């Protein structure tokens, strides 16, 4: 595998009297990443609430939500990846750590992030295709085409990984390492760079937009055909809600996700630019479970059921102080009637 990382490490190892610490960020580099760490902690909290709801509520554990769960799992891996890198680069003070470990961390820091972001765009494309088939042809994709769904999962997870490995092995991309600061992929072949921009960004985004347009057009045409009918079917309402949900989510996601992918694919080395676009990416990760849960009616139904259950049990069988409680008297004990008092009596 051709790379310029090994040569850089050898040059560092040949220095005399200097402790290079290749896996230890400078104080300024670490400070620049604290904000992202805070967002990752917030994202961990929001994702934990989402997965806790999934564990407790059986109604949201459905095969039709497999693409959403796959997407959110990639979010979890992105969080784990960043926290792991942050811990390693802020605690490894060795002057000369194992060279294989250094190479692994450099490649892990750069390639794993790009790989997961590519997965997300294709997972959303698969989700969009399944919803379009459901809307336009009224077919339950998840029951009728299980084998095709399995093949789609395998292709989505393996093909981007093979592409990254082939490019690294062929030397079409290399790591640009600024010691104790950052590392980034740079492309040595303009054709490979164009290929990556198309496959990782332009193609899946264009396909998603086309499918969204087809879904909106189908829903509008169905509404036009039934314009003279006062009754709107439940299926038509459901299809319309699916289109609106995905359109809102995709708009927010694209505005926060795309800058980071574009900067990565065109190999922009400006530290300020990369810092800002990666911050947007992590904000998107933190918002994902909130947006998905807010837009999906199944989560609304679960929240409503929990709220009604709490109200019915009066917050763990607690009494309402505003309600007058009934009184009881002991048996066989005569009661003495008190004389009526005037309203103005003291």
Automatic annotation (TrEMBL):
InterPro entries: GPCR_Rhodpsn_7TM (IPR017452). The chain crosses the membrane at residues 34-56, 68-89, 101-127, 148-170, 190-216. It is found in: Membrane. Residues 35-292 form the G-protein coupled receptors family 1 profile domain. The keyword Signal does not apply. GO terms for cellular component: membrane. Its main location: membrane. This is G-protein coupled receptors family 1 profile domain-containing protein.
């Amino acid at each position: 595998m051709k790379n310029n990382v090994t040569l850089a490490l050898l040059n560092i190892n040949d220095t005399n009297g200097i402790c290079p610490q290749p896996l230890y960020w400078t104080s300024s580099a670490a400070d620049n990443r604290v904000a992202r760490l805070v967002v990752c902690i917030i994202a961990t909290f929001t994702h934990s609430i989402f997965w806790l709801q999934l564990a407790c509520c059986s109604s949201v554990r459905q095969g039709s939500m497999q693409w959403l769960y796959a997407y959110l799992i990639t979010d979890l891996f992105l969080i784990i990846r960043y926290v792991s890198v942050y811990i390693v680069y802020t605690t490894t003070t060795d002057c000369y750590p194992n060279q294989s470990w250094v190479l692994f961390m450099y490649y892990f820091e750069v390639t794993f992030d790009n790989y997961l972001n590519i997965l997300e765009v294709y997972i959303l494309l698969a989700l969009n295709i399944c919803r379009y088939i459901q809307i336009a042809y009224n077919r339950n994709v998840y029951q009728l085409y299980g084998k095709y769904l399995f093949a789609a999962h395998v292709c989505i997870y393996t093909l981007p990984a093979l592409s990254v490995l082939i490019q690294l092995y062929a030397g079409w991309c290399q790591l640009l390492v600024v010691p104790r600061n950052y590392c980034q992929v740079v492309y040595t072949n303009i054709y490979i760079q164009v290929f990556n921009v198309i496959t990782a960004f332009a193609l899946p985004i264009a396909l998603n937009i086309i499918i969204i347009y087809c879904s909106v057009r189908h829903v509008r045409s169905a509404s036009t055909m039934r314009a003279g009918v006062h009754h709107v079917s439940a299926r038509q309402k459901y299809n319309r809600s699916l289109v609106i949900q995905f359109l809102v989510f995709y708009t927010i996601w694209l505005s926060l996700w795309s800058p980071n992918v574009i900067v990565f694919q065109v190999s922009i080395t400006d530290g300020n630019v990369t810092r800002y676009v990666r911050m947007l990416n992590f904000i998107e990760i933190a918002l994902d479970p909130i947006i998905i849960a807010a837009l999906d009616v199944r989560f609304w139904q679960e929240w409503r059921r929990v709220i009604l259950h709490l109200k019915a049990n009066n917050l763990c069988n607690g009494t309402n102080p505003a309600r007058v409680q009934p009184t009881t008297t002991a048996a066989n004990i005569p009661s003495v009637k008190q004389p009526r008092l005037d309203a103005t009596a003291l």
